[in-house]
Amino acid sequence: MMWSSASAAADAVDEVFGRRVEPVERLLDCSDDVARACHAMARRFHRGGKLIVFGNGGPSTDAQHVAVEFVHPVIVGKRALPALSLTADVATVTGVANGEGWDEIFAHQVRHLADPVDIALGISTDGHCLNVRRGLEAGRERGLLTIGLLGGDGGTIAVSGLDHVLVARSDDPRVVKEVHVTMYHILWELVHVFFEQPGALRPPEVPSQTR
């Protein structure tokens, strides 16, 4: 009986870890997409843009985590970059929700706080958060670089015309959140990699036309 219980526990442990393997492997498979998103972010920062991050619930705290990582790097010697979380100001969030509705809490702030050179990063564990989608759509309308950090199959946000879509492909929200932490740490790190490479942030040269 004790052997059976120990075996069942071991199987459960294997299953818990196994659920986390495939989403991470899929993240590795889309490394080119991640690198392109990071390069685009670095170019926006280089032009004077800032990062604007938002999400609901757990992703709201992720948004604050992302913002502080960029503004106050934990790695000594890395450049601080401008970033803000739209979830940090409770008075603004609740005021907009009361006046214009919950679906507009991020879109309204993007319209009034963002500049066209900025970056909008929306985080959603299932890809179906309407207010996150509306915030990204408002960003796209203003000319911001738009990035969705999503879960599941990407949901409705993934097909809403964003510049970059990064998906932690799991139906388990806990696993999605764990992969998201890895993703935004990679975003931070690769943005700095591009900053440290001379010429990496110059716009591509347009070939001269010969007559």
Q: Can you tell me the CATH class?
A: Alpha Beta
Strand order of the largest sheet: 2-1-3-4-5
The proportion of residues in beta strands is: 5-15%
**CATH arch. level architecture:** 3-Layer(aba) Sandwich
Count every beta strand, where a strand is a DSSP E run of 2 or more residues.
5
Shape: globular
| Through-space gap between termini | 86 Å
* Parts with pLDDT < 50 across at least 5 consecutive residues: none
Structural class: alpha/beta
Q: Any idea of the CATH topology?
A: Rossmann fold
Summed up, the helix count is 8
| Portion of residues within helices | 55-70%
The major β-sheet equals: 5 strands, parallel
Radius of gyration, whole Å = 19 Å
**What number of structural domains do the residues give?**
1
Average pLDDT, to the nearest integer? Answer: 88
Relevant CATH superfamily: Glucose-6-phosphate isomerase like protein, domain 1
Q: What is the chain-wise order of helices and strands?
A: HHEHEHHEHEHEH
InterPro entries: GmhA/DiaA (IPR035461), SIS_dom (IPR001347), SIS_dom_sf (IPR046348), SIS_GmhA/DiaA_subfam (IPR050099)
Organism: Allosaccharopolyspora coralli
GO molecular function, one term: carbohydrate derivative binding
Domain SIS: 41-204
